[in-house]
């Protein structure tokens, strides 16, 4: 909707710009700080321009073992990436299949199943961390990729969103597919999956960032440097056991931690727009 | 080419509600059977049971002599056209048509040959690359038809396929469907609530009411000799007029009705007369006079609603001609018959064969 009122335009843009700045400022400061020499950072004032170190700190992080962790940052990024992808893909797969069952199949206690899934929304990882740790330990999966991903796989939110989307599809679609000789899997793969494209893209972004930002669970379950994630390592880097924390490295690593989610958003954004432009149905 | 038989078919829902009672129907090779009835009469449920989309509580569905109760929809060799078409929104028209063949592992070149053939047949060859959302309602309808035709199934099932189209397109499409069905000679079961559609398309018509078949017959049989009061009221537009009363106490102005039946008239009966069998005449020249309450001009004819003097119910008269009487006027009514008599259960009472041009005398 568009109104021809210049005053409104100005006010709206002012608000938008303030909002954008509030979000961007910390990021800009982190980028600027990561290019300063350690000495400049310790002087107490942060210059609002690029420093002299350039990309040196990044090179240090990516090539040399990170202090307090023991492996270079690229390894940490890889671990985080594996965890985030595992969580995002796993969550989407499980949520879609669960929603598929809930919407398209008639089985006993269907509503009951739905409410049980829905209720797990009230139990985030923080609440169930002790029993979850116990289960993962029993399975012998502590300090491993599967142990990192598995407890975070089920998603009531995604199940719920897919369920709501599937409910909007006309039931005749499945009936037509049945008559056309498509079994349950064919229907899922040939019809539901392509129709859910935009939903999948949106949820993938959300779930990837959720996975990437995981802190508590990796902190508890991961003990070796080989499986350490970037976000938990960031904390270790800043623990100043001998003198001052290396802020120049910490800010650089923060920027590194920002990059993959940004890439995912930029890539998926094109899908959103595509989904919005040629609306199906 | 196939026959379709429904044997004592019943449908009961889990809650105990029985929506279909003992449906018996035999459909011949290449026959077009139209099932018509008001909404909620069970006609769609019946169709979906034949398709295999609804479970069967008891009874049998037999296609070509083989009971298909236990078969999946895809195994029954039927094709269905849905009311909302149910085209796959993300697939092109080509893929929509090809989907059932793909699932049956038809070779690629045969798929494209048959898709092109079907597209020619339905005049949608220019649309093969489009997505359903880029099509008009009529085009979507054709694609839905194409999806049914392409497999050359044993039986076509139509679930109110024209009700989402506008009036003129509906007339066009019903002719097209009829022509196509005759040309391909495929046994068809067509469900609709529109009695005009039913009359014009059917080889035989099945009128359903409250989960039961009221009557099966050719459209003209049902029109001329409705077996029940329900059929009489449902078939024909505008609907038949009904006068009810006790057989022993019929209004004197009704012309010789008791003499029309070969059965003794007792209890409450209904007398039906079609709007085209009543004529307007000058006051005092017919059997009874009345007030014109409403005139609905339709062009070449008008529907005139008349309230006979001293009666509750209105009679609708089909008045042919472009000149129309004024509302509020007094008029005479000439009830010419034939009359349809129904007992208090709504069953038709046998009537004497009518003598040609019997004139109705006015009661004293």
UniProtKB/TrEMBL annotation, chain A:
Coiled-coil ranges per UniProt: none
GO cellular component: plasma membrane
Domain of life: Bacteria
PROSITE patterns from the UniProt entry: ABC_TM1
Subcellular location: Cell inner membrane; Cell membrane
Entries under Pfam families matching the protein: BPD_transp_1
Example GO BP: transmembrane transport
Membrane topology: Multi-pass membrane protein
Residue ranges constituting the ABC transmembrane type-1 domain according to the UniProt record: 77-268
Membrane-crossing residue ranges in chain numbering: 12-33, 81-105, 112-136, 148-166, 187-210, 247-268
Sorted UniProt keywords: Cell inner membrane, Cell membrane, Membrane, Transmembrane, Transmembrane helix, Transport
Membership in a protein family: Belongs to the binding-protein-dependent transport system permease family.
Subunit structure: The complex is composed of two ATP-binding proteins (UgpC), two transmembrane proteins (UgpA and UgpE) and a solute-binding protein (UgpB).
Biological role stated in the UniProt entry: Part of the ABC transporter complex UgpBAEC involved in sn-glycerol-3-phosphate (G3P) import. Probably responsible for the translocation of the substrate across the membrane.
Protein name: sn-glycerol-3-phosphate transport system permease protein UgpE
From TrEMBL, chain B:
PROSITE patterns, A to Z: ABC_TRANSPORTER_1, ABC_TRANSPORTER_2
Domain ABC transporter: 4-235
One Gene Ontology CC term in the entry: ATP-binding cassette (ABC) transporter complex, substrate-binding subunit-containing
Key words of the record: ATP-binding, Cell inner membrane, Cell membrane, Membrane, Nucleotide-binding, Sugar transport, Translocase, Transport
Classification via CDD domains: ABC_MalK_N
Molecular function via GO: ABC-type transporter activity; ATP binding; ATP hydrolysis activity
Superkingdom classification of source: Bacteria
Pfam families: ABC_tran, TOBE_2
GO biological-process terms attached to the record: carbohydrate transport; glycerol-3-phosphate transmembrane transport; glycerophosphodiester transmembrane transport
Name listed for the protein in its UniProt record: Carbohydrate ABC transporter ATP-binding protein, CUT1 family
Species whose genome carries this gene: Kushneria avicenniae
């Amino acid at each position: 909707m568009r109104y021809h009122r210049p005053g409104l335009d100005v006010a709206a843009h002012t608000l938008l710009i303030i909002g954008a700045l509030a979000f961007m400022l910390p990021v800009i400061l982190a980028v600027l700080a990561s290019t300063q020499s350690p000495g400049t950072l310790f002087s107490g004032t942060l210059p609002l321009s690029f420093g002299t170190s350039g990309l040196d700190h990044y090179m240090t992080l990516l090539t040399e073992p990170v202090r307090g962790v023991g492996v270079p940052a690229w390894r940490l990024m890889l671990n985080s990436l594996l965890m985030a992808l595992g969580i995002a893909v796993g969550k989407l797969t499980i949520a879609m299949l669960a929603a598929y069952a809930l919407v398209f199949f008639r089985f006993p206690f269907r509503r009951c199943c739905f409410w049980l899934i829905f209720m797990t929304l009230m139990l985030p990882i923080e609440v169930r961390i002790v029993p979850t740790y116990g289960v993962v330990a029993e399975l012998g999966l502590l300090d491993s990729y599967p142990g990192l991903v598995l407890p975070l796989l089920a998603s009531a939110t995604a199940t719920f969103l897919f369920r709501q989307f599937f409910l909007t599809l006309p039931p005749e679609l499945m009936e037509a597919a049945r008559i056309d000789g498509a079994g349950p899997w064919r229907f899922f793969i040939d019809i539901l999956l392509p129709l859910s494209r935009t939903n999948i893209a949106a949820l993938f972004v959300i779930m990837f960032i959720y996975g990437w930002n995981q802190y508590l669970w990796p902190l508890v379950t991961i003990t070796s440097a080989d499986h350490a994630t970037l976000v938990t390592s960031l904390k270790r880097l800043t623990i100043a056991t001998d003198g001052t924390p290396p802020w120049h490295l910490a800010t650089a690593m923060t920027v590194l931690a920002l990059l993959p989610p940004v890439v995912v958003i930029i890539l998926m954004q094109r899908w959103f727009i595509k989904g919005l432009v040629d609306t199906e149905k | 080419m196939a026959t379709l038989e429904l044997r004592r078919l019943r449908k009961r829902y889990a809650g105990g509600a029985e929506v279909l009672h003992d449906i018996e129907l035999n459909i011949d090779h290449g026959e077009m059977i139209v099932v018509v009835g008001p909404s909620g009469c069970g006609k769609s449920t019946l169709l979906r049971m034949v398709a295999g989309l609804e479970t069967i509580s008891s009874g049998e569905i037999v296609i070509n002599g083989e009971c298909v109760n236990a078969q999946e929809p895809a195994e029954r060799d039927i094709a269905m056209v849905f009311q909302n078409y149910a085209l796959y929104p993300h697939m092109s028209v080509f893929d929509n048509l090809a989907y059932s063949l793909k699932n049956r592992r038809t070779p690629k070149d045969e798929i494209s040959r048959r898709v092109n053939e079907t597209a020619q047949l339905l005049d949608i060859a220019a649309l093969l690359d489009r997505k359903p959302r880029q099509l008009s309602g009529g085009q979507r309808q054709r694609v839905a038809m194409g999806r049914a035709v392409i497999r050359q199934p044993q039986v076509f099932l139509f679930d109110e396929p024209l009700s989402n189209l506008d009036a003129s397109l509906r007339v066009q499409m019903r002719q097209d469907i009829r022509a196509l069905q005759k040309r391909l000679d495929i046994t068809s079961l067509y469900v609709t609530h529109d009695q005009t559609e039913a009359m014009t398309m059917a080889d035989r018509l099945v009128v359903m009411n409250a989960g039961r078949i009221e009557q099966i017959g050719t459209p003209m049989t049902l029109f001329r000799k409705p077996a029940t009061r329900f059929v009489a009221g449902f078939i024909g537009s505008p609907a038949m007029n009904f006068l009810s009363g006790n057989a022993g106490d019929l209004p004197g102005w009704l012309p010789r009705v008791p003499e029309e039946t070969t059965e003794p008239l007792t209890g409450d009966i209904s007398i039906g007369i079609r709007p085209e069998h009543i004529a307007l005449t000058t006051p005092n020249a017919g059997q009874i006079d009345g007030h014109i309450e409403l005139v609905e001009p339709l062009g070449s004819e008008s529907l005139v609603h008349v309230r006979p003097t001293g009666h509750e119910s209105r009679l609708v008269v089909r008045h042919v001609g472009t000149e129309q009487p004024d509302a509020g006027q007094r008029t005479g009514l000439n009830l010419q018959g034939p009359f349809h008599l129904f007992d208090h259960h709504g069953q038709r009472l046998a009537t004497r064969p009518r003598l040609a041009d019997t004139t109705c005398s006015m009661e004293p």
